[in-house]
Amino acid sequence: MGQKKWLETEQSVSDxxxxxxxxxxxxxxxxxxxxxxxxxxxxxGKKESIGFGNFLVRQISYTGWKxxxxxxxxxxxxxxxxxxxxxxxMAEIARLIGRNLPFFFGMIAVAQVMILIPFLERSFRYQMYxxxxxxxxxxxxxxxxxxxxxxxxxxxxxxxxxxxxxGYKNVSAGAVALYFLVPLFVSCNGCMVVLRNMIxxxxxxxxxxxxxxxxxxxxxxxxxxxxxxxxxxxxxGHWIIWGVILTVAFLGMILQGRELxxxxxxxx
Length: 268
What we know:
The chain is built from ten helices and no strands. It has helices at residues 3-19, 27-47, 52-83, 90-99, 101-126, 129-135, 139-166, 173-202, 207-231, 239-263. The longest helix is centred in the first third of the chain and has 32 residues, at 52-83. Keywords: Membrane, Transmembrane, Transmembrane helix.
């Protein structure tokens, strides 16, 4: 706020205090109240200048790095648990992954969604009113920021999976992409359905319900992958079925995402 604008506003506030019936303050009290109002006016002026890009960058130090750290830790821990003492034997790892492609890469993909859910749940549970007040970004803005951070992490992990596949002849890059993206999109669709139903029924998303519903959807996806890999012959070889599921899940995710961003609001 410029100096001239500041002085004009201060004079207006002073005039209002003089004219308002029943407001009989001494000079010290009046100056204190004027200063409080001016501080609030300056704060409101600052809020208007914050764009979503600036907001997104600032939130990296609060939320983004935590999401990326959690995603990286999971991949490292899962790698160690899945391969055990053979974690450093790349030839043995390639052989094991070749036998368990759908489950291995599908598990990594679904787990990324499971990691993201608690961060979304926290936004809904505590409503982030202080962030909305400071930036004029409501729940949809916070939701969008968390999803962008999560997507960046997922893209990075997907790139690592593709790089791994490119280094081994018995691991197909196309298969890796299919087995990673199908469970990812299906689990995202399931979480969006849970969230939209909660908002439609209650008018607002409750954090605990989002957490339980979203994590349950992801666990079901992991269970289907585990059962399919163990019990269904040629589970990963039905390319047409996998391709159809991928297409439907991708389109569904886009449509649901658009509707979801319209419906999520603190004002609900």
